Amino acid sequence: MVFSLWGGPFTGPIFIYPFGDRERYLCIFNDDTAILVFVVDTISAGESRLEPKWNWPTDDFARRSLASRATNIVIQTKGIVRFPNTLELREVSQYLRSASGHQFRTASFPIWDLGICRLYWSKEQLINALSPDRHHYWPLKNRP
């Protein structure tokens, strides 16, 4: 097992993107009052990855709030939980823009499952959650 995500009736993963190295996974998670975006990085213990410094999200309060909540969501991992860097955000955004409907649904989790009918977040909503200028823990389109 690479990692597990905690969930409940109103919380759970929305989208998981595996990077090409299969050691990093970007997760978009509905935490009921916040949309968390984080990377589960399964680097080996003692190994370090040189990551550029980044300041995402740009709002300090949102960054602290999202950071504290993301580490409580991921359970049973041998890696680390961290914010995505700019290159990772860009890669996933490009994937979402170009993915076919089938590819998108393969990486997405339904937010409502009635058996016959399943509802998913839209690509636009997920891209909005990955926005480099995100300022809030619930990324609404009209919010600054």
What can you see in these coordinates?
With 144 residues, the protein is an alpha+beta fold. It has one domain (8-46, 55-129). The chain is 28% helix and 22% strand. It is built from 4 helices and 8 strands. The strands form 3 sheets. Strands 2-3-4-6 form a 4-stranded antiparallel sheet. Helix 2 (86-98) runs antiparallel to helix 4 (123-129). The longest helix has 14 residues, at 60-73. The N and C termini lie far apart (38 Å).
Q: What would you say about this model in short?
A:
The protein has helices spanning 60-73, 86-98, 101-107, 123-129; strands at 4-5, 12-18, 24-30, 35-41, 74-75, 80-82, 112-113, 118-119. It has 144 residues and is α+β, with helices and mostly antiparallel strands. The protein has one domain (8-46, 55-129).
Rounded to the nearest angstrom, the distance between the terminal CA atoms is: 38 Å
Write the element-wise H/E pattern from the N-terminal end onward.
EEEEHEEHHEEH
- How many beta strands in the DSSP annotation? 8
The coarse overall form would be globular
